Description:
Layout lengths: L1 H7 L24 H6 L2 H41 L6
Amino acid sequence: MLERFMSLRADKFEILRKKPAHDDFDFSFLVSDDHLQRFKKEELINFMLEFIQGIDKEISEMKLSVINHSRMAACFFTNGLANNKIE
């Protein structure tokens, strides 16, 4: 899902490859000499770091959401087995 999202938006992120460099990767960056001339190296590095941190943050939030939903489902299930009133 992430790979498809990235490949559709690769044109917006000029240094993002449309297809990952390796099958095990979800995405990869391609920084050419042209990019280095147009952008500062620090800006490119900051962009990549912020991009990866943003994805990491979103994945962590999704994991927490799944855990919370699982916990609620388990609570409903166990209350149903115990014939307790569900609140």
